[in-house]
Each structure stands twice: as C-alpha cells, then as structure tokens.
Amino acid sequence: MRALRDHGIVVALGGNALAPSSETGTIAQQFRHTRESLGAVVELAGEGWKIAIVHGNGPQVGNDLVRNEVARRMVPPLPLGVLVAGTEGWIGYMIQQSLQNALRSAEVDRQVVTLVTQVVVDPDDPQLRAPSKPIGRVMDEETANDCVETFGWNVAPEKDGWRRVVPSPRPIGIVEGRMIRTLFDQGHLVIAAGGGGTPVFIDRSECIEGIDAVVDKDRAAAVLGVELAAEILLVLTDVEAIYADFGTPEQRPIRRLDVDQAEALLAAGALGAGNMAPKVEAAIHFLRHGGKRALIARLDQGREAVTGGSGTEIRTE
Fold it and tell me: Quick check: is 159 catalytic?
C-alpha cells in the first residue's frame, strides 16, 4: 500500500444497491451485493486514500418497521430512531466483514471499523412535520391502504406502486465527528453515519435526545465530509451520471458542472424532487464548505469517476 494521502474520500453507498427491489432481500443476497459493491473502495484503499463510508438503509429499515408492526402484539415495538441505529450496526457489520475479506485478498493492510453515529438535526425543521422520505419496499395500493388503516403509516405513490414515507430533517452536525476524524486521519476505513445516522437534537440542557425520522444518507455524507476535511465526496448510485433531459429520448450524461451550474439545475427543477436532487444538494453543500470535488457515478464505476473517466464531476469552479 502507498503512504496515506493528505486528504481523503467520503463514499456514499446506497441502501438500494445492497437490496435491489427486484429481489426478496435475503441476507445472503445482501451480502453478495455488498461484496460486489466494494471494488472501488478496495482500489482506493490500496492507493492510500483515507476513506469513510456512509451507507443507505431505506429498504432495510423499512423491512424492520414491517417486522416491528407484525410482532407488536408479541413484543414491544421499537421507535424508528432506534431501528435506524440497529441498521447502522448490522449493515455496518456486513460491509465491514466484506471489506475486511476483500482487503485481505488484495493484500491491502488497512483496518476497518463501524461506528454507530448520531447526526444532529434541528428539532424545528419543517420536514419533521411533512413526511416525505420513502423507505421500505414498493407495495400495491391495497397493501398500502391496509398499512395506513392498521398501522397509521403515511404512504405516497411511486412509479411502480406505493411506499411508506417518514420525516427526513436536514443534518447539521455529527455527534461523534471528532472520533471519526481521529480514526480517519490514522488511516482506518470508517463506516459511519449509516442510513444517514440516527437523528438526534441537543436540548436546552445540552443533552442528546433522539428523534423518530430518517436522515438522507447523501446529505449526511456531505456534512461528514466537511467535518473530516475530505477532498472528495463520491456518491455511488444506480445511474451512470446526472442526465440532461432525463427520461426522454434526448437524455445525455452531463460530465462536468460547476457549483453555480448545479444550483441552476436544482432551481429550474431539472433534477426533479426524487433521487438525484438530494445527491446534487449534498454535493453543493460539500463544495460550498471546503470540499474540492463531488462525484456522482454508477456503483461499479467509482474508481473511474475518481480518475475523471466516468460519472458527473461537480467542482467549485
């Protein structure tokens, strides 16, 4: 392995990449997808990059909520914030073990650690009163209506059906930021803020209190990247790049943007309100607060994106 670089990378890895909607999502399937998703991380680790990994948890925490509701007459249900912390642990374990094995096979001597992370939000964030973040798997309309009546869920339509929606406040800080920075600077690969981190707020007596919500993992990755003074935010997703005229016969990948151009796309509604807009918002936040490069690329093209051969790159100028 080369000597450690001065700066590092925060990698945002989607929860849907580990549990595609086309599969049932067994743990064996998720382990397989996890192993397949880490090639870029292993290459970057071998090149001496300092690395932090933030993963999503939408399908996984959604399934945990279903288990929660189905078993509520047998055991006391757990609140959403606690379930997020649970997914931080077990998805982190899955990524950690898969990465340890891959690093060993590649003869890269780096340590991996998972840290359950609390992410600070504003208790007055209006998003807490407007559930909008989809979690869990797609349901047909009959199942969705039954969940509304039986469990009191909020649901919203999607292209292929219906999904549960929950509050998603914006992250403003990382409680364990100093500890993550210490591990990061020492060259350990840190899996942190999993699922966007467990959302908390600081009360008037400076105590930490949990909130039942889900933080967007890309936004949390951007905040973490700023706290780590990382050089690059690498958002890995299921599309090759940001597209102009997305969804039309004229769609084409956008390879380079500056921050002003990215903000103009957001303001014009060109990215919609779904999956891509939060990624670009996260990239802008990262770059406006000290980051150098933000990359959005397909899961299997992360290494190529870092070298400028794939994905969309956003820079400050």
Answer: no
